[in-house]
Each structure stands twice: as C-alpha cells, then as structure tokens.
Amino acid sequence: MKQGKLVRTQNVVAADKCIEYLLNRPKLEMVGLGLLYGRPGLGKTTYASRIAFSKGYVYLRLEATTTPKAFASKLLLALYKRFGMGEYIPYGTANDLFMLCLSTLEDHPDTIIVVDEIDYAFSDSDPGRDAECQG
C-alpha cells in the first residue's frame, strides 16, 4: 500500500461524501461544520490527518492538556504560516488570540480547519458512539 493513501473502506467513502457535501453546500444558507465521531480505533485520526494534509487544510490536534489559550495560539500560528503572515504570534489573553484568529479567518473565508480530538475541549462522560455522518 502506498504511504499516505487511504484504503477505500465504506467509512472512508462515506466521510469523503460528507466533506464533499460540506464544500458544495449553499454557503449563504448553511453553516460549514462537520464532525467525525465513533469508538477508538475506527480510523478517525488517520482519515482526518491524511485528508487535511492531502487537500492542504489547516490541521490541529488537541491534547488532553490543551488549554483554550494554547489552542488559540496554535490555531493562530497555523493560520499565520498558512497565509504567509510570519511566525511571530501576538500574545494576550485567550480571547485576544481567538479574536485575532477570527479576524484572520474573515480575511480568508474559504479556509478549512480540521481539529482532531476536539472532544478534549469538552467534558463528556459518554465516549462510546458509532461513527456516522450527520447532514
């Protein structure tokens, strides 16, 4: 198997269709947010990282210890690199950094961001769910 290639399983085909749907949605009528979820070991991280890197999307991975400020800083750094804005990241509160992220994204409205392990940003006691696409 070629490194970086995804095997075209039923889950991969379904996820590709969901992403295609999000990209081609009527943008003035629908918010663009997708969520892959499911039990550990189904390939969500593999899919998310490979699709992001192959399509040139911004990819971030949260850790259990990621604070809101660290997340905003990491996102801002990724956006600055993506748009050639340098590697200097302004400092400030989590809210200040997040507002800079929003400002940058307003200037680049077609930016696609993949956040892996987003569940670390929320407390949830029910980690066992089936993977599917909600449209």
Could you characterize the architecture of this molecule?
There is one protein chain. The chain is mainly α. It has helices at residues 10-23, 44-55, 68-82, 94-107, and strands at 58-61, 113-116. The protein contains 4 helices and 2 strands.
By DSSP, the count of extended strands is 2
- Number of helical runs? 4
Main pleated-sheet profile:
2 strands, parallel
Structural class: mainly alpha
Mean pLDDT over the full residue set: 82
Main β-sheet, spatial strand arrangement: 1-2
Measured distance between first and last alpha carbons? 32 Å
Helix content: 40-55%
Low-confidence blocks of residues: 124-135
The proportion of strand residues reads 5-15%
In total, the number of domains comes to 2
Rounded Rg: 16 Å
Gross geometry: globular
Order of helices and strands: HHEHHE
Task: Summarize the structure in short.
This protein is mainly α.
Map the helices and strands:
Blueprint: H1 10-23, H2 44-55, E1 58-61, H3 68-82, H4 94-107, E2 113-116
Parallel strand pairs: 1-2
List the defining traits of the structure above.
4 helices; single chain; globular; 2 strands; 135 residues; mainly alpha
